[in-house]
Amino acid sequence: MAWIYLFFAGLFEVVWASTMKQSEGFTKLTPTIITMVAMFISFGLLALAMRTLPLGSAYAIWTGIGAVGAFIVGLVFFSEPATIFRIVSVCLIVAGLTGLKLSSGH
């Protein structure tokens, strides 16, 4: 169950990172509220996952899901560039996340 909590914590991290950008420095009310609620949910789920998962693995995977997810959201919704260097870099993050998951023992 901890891995499911961690996965959804990472997805909510993507939500709050994306809406934080849309809030334009917390000057727009709706994206600011969504950011704060998504942060609360993300941190809460991360805390539940950390009850049983190792700190290093849980935190690294949570931030990795957020980083990769934010990268994809940036490409799809914010027209950010999809250069080969950026794509290879994200693939390296995914490889690291996979290694952490496989070596966590949970």
Automatic annotation (TrEMBL):
It is a multi-pass membrane protein. The chain crosses the membrane at residues 33-50, 57-78, 84-102. It is found in: Cell membrane. One of its GO terms (molecular function) is transmembrane transporter activity. Gene3D superfamilies: 1.10.3730.20. One of its GO terms (cellular component) is plasma membrane. InterPro entries: EmrE-like (IPR037185), Small_drug/metabolite_transptr (IPR000390), Small_multidrug_res (IPR045324). Keywords: Cell membrane, Membrane, Transmembrane, Transmembrane helix, Transport. Pfam families: Multi_Drug_Res. It comes from the Bacteria. This is Guanidinium exporter. The lineage of its organism: Bacteria, Pseudomonadati, Pseudomonadota, Alphaproteobacteria, Hyphomicrobiales.
